[in-house]
Amino acid sequence: MEYVLKTRDLTKKYGNKVVVNKLNMTIEKGDIYGFIGRNGAGKTTTMKMVLGMCFPNSGFIELFGKPAHNSARGRIGSLIEAPGIYKGYTAYENMKRFSILFGGDDKKINELLDMMELSGTGKKKAGAFSLGMKQRLGIAIAMLGDPEFLVLDEPVNGLDPAGIKGVRDVILRLNKEKGVTFFISSHLLGELAKISTRYGIINDGVLVEEFTAEELMENCRKILTIKCSEPKKADELLKTKLGMEDYSIKEDTITVNSGFDDPASINSALVKAECGVFDFHVSNLEMEDYFIERIGR
Questions:
Q1: Domain span at residue 281?
Q2: How many Cβ atoms are within 10 Å of 44's Cβ, its own excluded?
Q3: Percent of the chain at pLDDT above 70?
Q4: Which among 180, 199, 217 is the end of a domain?
């Protein structure tokens, strides 16, 4: 497995306050890593330490398989908090100025403006752009120099649905077509779920859990709950007559985890078998509920 980022016991304090506490994180090459947490949980501080914008009190950062240093950070692009653009200049003029720092000729600039759907802005000044356009311009600037790893702090915060979709499409395209690995913080769980391949949850500076998109969907799957007066009879019916295996029984409650495409037929079979069904419902753990469970209310 090839890792773009690994941290070990990464810790940052401001005075007596521990903002990031012994954080151990891994981001694999090709990931779109969704970093989730409340405001003040330590997301931005973690990203700033990765980028060398602030320094840890203790712990270790590894980039591209080696200890973090400036040459490794030269392979990273970033957009932290807000895009630092020149409002009195056009999108092209902004890109031209930043290309002096980060590299990139006119061909590269025009390619990125096309990709971000900004090539048609002409002489319009960046200060008159919508928030979504400004975010896309910020990502275009971050992509100068062809970074392999892009760190984006709340890139869709405050955007309308069209702006969110525009940024989301850019992220997916860069990941698929250019193989860029992403580290994205956000509190918009529904939007992260549309693009992320892996997640990390941070709460009060502590990394609570890391998991894949597949693991998230498994944890949020639908379940069927049945309460009946004859759980032993229901067990036999589910197993032998209906061929079901993925379920559990506790006292008078049966929890079916999968294999119930037609719940009504199960209910009908239990009633016919005189199992005395007094509660029967399908539910699923919502994604937001899943995250809230892990970060506390």
A1: 221-286
A2: 20
A3: 98
A4: 217
The sheet carrying 32-36 orders its strands as 76-79, 149-153, 181-186, 32-36, 198-203, 206-212
Q: What is the token pair recorded at 262?
A: 């037609």
Q: CA-to-CA distance for 270 and 273, rounded, in angstroms?
A: 5
Tell me 54's DSSP state.
Answer: S
Please give the angle made by the CA atoms of 197, 78 and 208, to the nearest 5 degrees.
45
Of the two residues 125 and 192, the one the predictor is more confident about is 125
Q: How many separate domains does the chain show?
A: 2
User: Does residue 68 come out as left (phi exceeding 0), alpha (psi in the -120 to 50 range) or beta?
Assistant: beta
Strands 3-14, 26-28: pairing is antiparallel
Are residues 72 and 8 part of one domain?
A: yes
Give the pLDDT confidence of 91-116 residue by residue, as tens digits: 999 999 999 888 778 899 999 999 88
Co-location of 161 and 173 in the same domain: yes
Q: Are residues 200 and 158 in the same domain?
A: yes
d(C-alpha 27, C-alpha 61), whole Å:
12
**Count of CA atoms in the C-beta half-sphere (13 A) of 143:** 25
- Structure confidence by residue, pLDDT tens digits, 104-155: 788 999 999 998 889 999 999 999 999 889 989 999 999 898 899 999 998 8
